[in-house]
Amino acid sequence: MSSEVIRVENLSKVYSTREGDFHALDKLSFAIEEGGFVSIVGPSGCGKSTLLQLLTGLLEPTSGQVLIDGIEVRKPLPEKTGVMFQDATLLPWLTAEENVAFPLSLCGTDKKESQRRARDLLKLVGLGDFINHRPAELSGGMRQRVAIARGLVRDPRILLMDEPFAALDEQTRFKMGEELLWIWQETRKTILFITHGLTEAIYLSDTVLVMGTKPGRIIEVIPVDLPRPRTFEMISSEFFGKARNRIWKLIQEEAEA
Amino acid sequence: MRLSVLLGAQTGFFLLLAIVWESISRLELADPRLLPSFLTVLGVLGDLLTQRDFLMDLGITGLEVGVAFIIAAPLGVSIGFLLGEKLFLGQILSPMFHFMLSVPQSIFLPIFMLLLGIGFLEKVVFGVTHAIFVIIVTTTAAVRTVPRDYVTVARTFGATPRQIYLRVYLPAMLPVVMTGLRLGMIFNIIGVLLAEMDASRAGIGRRLFSWGEGFQLDLLLAGILLVSALTIIINEVMRYCEHRAARGHVA
Predict the structure, then answer these.
(1) What domains sit in chain A, N to C, each tagged with a CATH number?
(2) What's the CATH fold of domain B37-245?
(3) Label partner for B127 (CA 20 to 30 A): which of A133, A135, A210, B242?
(4) Which of B64, B37, B209 is nearest to B122 (CA)?
(5) What is the ipTM of this complex?
(6) Which of A79, A83, A93 is nearest residue B156 as measured by Cβ atoms?
(7) Which residues from chain A sit within 8 angstroms of residue B155, using beta carbons?
(8) pLDDT tens, residue by residue, B36-46
């Protein structure tokens, strides 16, 4: 009995356009084990966003299926998957605490209980002193932390993250990566992390899936055999450099193809 | 410090205007029968506010404005929301409402008088037609300002369509809708007063009109001061609500 929490089988998505069918994704298959940290990298337009929408149940596949905990995804499953986007997409009229509690309020959780959970999670992401701040009063990094807390609030087994740190500056981005790893260790979630950043992908993950374009598909699976916890020095190690060059080369070839 | 200086200067300017008005009248630079002094007008206003039948007139106008707003606000917001949300419906009907906004409503007054007679109902309907188009058009615009991302996020966290309307659309639209309601209120007051001044048996508009006809400038100016003050207060209260609703709404 394997402990796969995400299983993607022959997943295809075809959009009908005036110029004919556009194959956004073509027979994608992969699986992620419980507690794993997997990144997906690929050139622009390789269908990463389409894949995320299929995983969250916002889109229906043309063929193939996504299984989460053995259940076929046909609509959003908020009790199983928490989602985070490139933009924090917090609701600006709610405080940090209310934003984190928002998914709970949608499913009718007791108000006291929601508040308690939201506060605990804001403490976990280091924002215990900002529960009553509105998004406009928080920095970009802080907003993403609130978004992480919101993604965790229904205690899902899986976190799906769509380039969550792409809009942040380099230093904040690295720090957020470190904190994400720490939260991952603490909560034992399974994380699927979509990114443009090769260093970020290798640094954070157990496995990097490299996607090709036209049609979108997985062209290589790169295991990251670096010990945990990861350290800044590992980025300059020989293994790290080789993995980076390999992925870079694959993406370049795809982009030129 | 700077704020207090500013406030002081603004009050000073206002006082200066009052003093100029007072002096022109006192020094008989203008005929005091045509321009009674500021203090005289204030005195007349004080008297008016103790007269029962004047207060009744004020109350009737207030009631007409209130009833018209209570009808126009939910109706306008609902229609505007439908036009913004149902794209097809919006494409068909939006231009009509948009054009209606630019037509001066006063040209329809004779028709309303023929249809509804002269009285409370006619005033209310005229207030409604003045208010509703600006409320509809701003609400439709407000729907389109709601970022798609908010809806996507709510959906991924399992929101039902009803929850998306009530918990995402409504609060996201609120600041713009509040602006529409405030403008609607201004138009509503214009409509009701216009109808009263044109033909009426009651209301503050009728009072103003007959004072003007009778060259009772002291009463007329007192009435104008009062109505101005009241409408400014209504507008500022609504603007305060608008401001509260917009708290944190920065992209």
Answers:
(1) 4-80+159-256 (3.40.50.300), 90-155 (no CATH)
(2) MetI-like fold (1.10.3720)
(3) B242
(4) B64
(5) 0.85
(6) A83
(7) 58, 76
(8) 999 999 999 99
